[in-house]
Design a protein that fits this description.
The protein is mainly alpha-helical. The chain has a single domain, classed as Four Helix Bundle (Hemerythrin (Met), subunit A). The chain is built from four helices and no strands. Helix 2 runs antiparallel to helix 3, helix 2 runs parallel beside helix 4 and helix 3 runs antiparallel to helix 4. The longest helix is centred in the middle third of the chain and has 30 residues.
């Protein structure tokens, strides 16, 4: 499960990257904490951070369970798709929120596969008594 741990740590570093981008946007657009609205460009950075956090809460247990019950290498592959989707999402959302679709699709679908796969794997193991 070391590779799954690496994927999770990369996802956390990716989230920290969004936090840093929000901090930079605060300075660039003059938005003082605790404000979360003001300049539309700042709001885009902030939404990327919040959306990433919202999905991270699902991704972390999903990738871990999928890796444990289905397979570490499959989890890593899906985790890399998730990470790619989140990067694509972050870049496209800031440029034009309407173009965020491909990034959302990659990260959401890979996460959904892991949630369903982890559930199926745990259910199978429970029912088979292994």
């Amino acid at each position: 499960m070391e590779l799954v741990t690496i994927i999770i740590m990369l996802a956390l570093l990716q989230y920290i990257w969004t936090v840093i981008r929000v901090g930079g946007a605060r300075g660039k657009y003059g938005i003082e904490a605790p404000a979360t609205t003001g300049d539309p460009m700042f709001e885009r950075h902030f939404r990327v951070q919040m959306n990433t956090l919202e999905l991270l809460v699902v991704f972390v247990p999903a990738v871990w369970c999928f890796g444990y019950y289905v397979g570490q290498y499959w989890a890593v592959g899906l985790g890399l798709i998730y990470l790619t989707g989140r990067i694509l999402y972050a870049i496209t959302y800031v440029k034009d929120p309407a173009s965020r679709g491909p990034g959302v699709l990659l990260s959401m679908l890979s996460t959904l596969v892991m949630v369903l796969g982890g559930l199926a794997g745990a259910g199978w193991k429970y029912l088979s008594g292994v």
